[in-house]
Each structure stands twice: as structure tokens, then as C-alpha cells.
Write a structure and sequence with these properties.
The chain starts with 11 loop residues before the first strand and ends in a 5-residue tail after the last helix. The relative contact order is 0.26. The chain is 27% helix and 25% strand. By secondary structure, it is of the alpha/beta class. The longest helix is centred in the middle third of the chain and has 15 residues. It has a seven-stranded mixed β-sheet with strand order 1-7-6-2-5-4-3, with helices on both faces.
Length: 173
């Protein structure tokens, strides 16, 4: 008889439909307290899928939980990397859209940030095989309604226990 529960070494996956940007913000707020220093989130999706909106909401939630004042979170499309404090934890938000490949990412310091900060990477395909092995992928895609999105969270099995509270909430809370 097959196991009713997934094996602990089975990669993690959680899918949800988000009705609008407010639902995206709720998902980011629910995910924020489950993150810790050394976590990397790879934000995938086409232009306009909500990657930056998700990152803004997540950064805002992390900063609020650390007692930090709200701060504007611009898209790092032109600066490539923006950093934020969330108490003792640093948050790095990278947008690699303008880069052509892994060799262009070398000087950004993302490998070091992946070990010491919470790292959010938009357009992670530019990292090639240099993406951190333990990263959680947050894939956003437009859905049928204009503001609706489908989100898929995927990662190594280690994410299963950490994100169990999120799964219990139905992903978007």
C-alpha cells in the first residue's frame, strides 16, 4: 500500500490561486515569518506577473516584524541590487533582468548574500547553475482574471516542514 503522506525526501511543492494583488501581499506576509537568514527565494514569472509586488510585500512584512519603519521598495531593475535591514537580518533584492547570464552575476555578491542574508532574486534564470541549491522558487503566472495570479512554491524537501503553516492556511492565508 503506498504511503498516504509524501516521503520526507520528496521535493516540496505548493500551488495556489491568488485573486488579486492583495492576495499576493497576504501570501508574502504569511511567508515572511517562516524565513530566516541564509534563505534564497527565486522569483520566476514573465514581465508583469507580480514578482516585484511580491518582493515589496515580503520586504515590508519582514521589516514590520523586525520593528522597522516602512520604506519605499523600488524595483532594482536598474540598480540590480537593493538592500534593506530587518532588525539583525539583511534582505537583498536582486533583479537580474538586464544581465545576460551567470558570468554577469559574479560581481554582485549574491553567493555571499545567500549565506548571510535573505536573498530575493527576480529573473533567476540568469544565475544558470549558480542558483543556491536550497532555494525556494516562487513562480508567479497570470491567470484568467486580469489581476489574478497562480503561484507555485517549489523547493527541496527541507521546505516542507518549514512551510507547513503556510500550506495549512491554504497558501494565501
Amino acid at each position: 500500500m503506498p504511503d498516504a503522506l509524501p516521503r520526507s525526501d520528496t521535493p516540496f511543492r505548493l500551488d495556489a490561486d491568488l485573486a488579486d494583488e492583495a492576495a499576493t501581499r497576504r501570501l508574502a506576509a504569511a511567508l515572511a515569518p517562516l524565513l530566516r537568514r541564509g534563505d534564497t527565494l527565486l522569483l520566476e514569472g514573465p514581465v508583469g506577473a507580480g514578482k516585484t509586488a511580491f518582493a515589496r510585500a515580503l520586504i515590508g512584512a519582514l521589516r514590520a516584524a523586525a520593528g522597522e519603519a516602512p520604506e519605499e521598495v523600488p524595483s532594482p531593475t536598474f540598480t540590480l541590487v537593493q538592500t534593506y535591514a530587518a532588525g539583525p537580518v539583511e534582505i537583498w533584492h536582486a533583479d537580474l533582468y538586464r544581465l545576460s547570464g551567470p558570468e554577469d552575476c559574479e560581481e554582485l555578491g549574491l553567493a555571499e548574500a545567500a549565506e548571510t542574508a535573505i536573498l530575493l532574486v527576480e529573473w533567476p534564470d540568469r544565475l544558470g547553475d549558480r542558483a543556491p541549491a536550497g532555494a525556494l522558487t516562487v513562480a508567479l503566472a497570470p491567470a484568467a482574471a486580469p489581476e489574478a495570479r497562480h503561484v507555485s512554491l517549489r523547493g527541496p524537501a527541507a521546505w516542507r516542514a518549514r512551510l507547513a503553516p503556510l500550506a495549512a492556511q491554504g497558501a494565501a492565508g
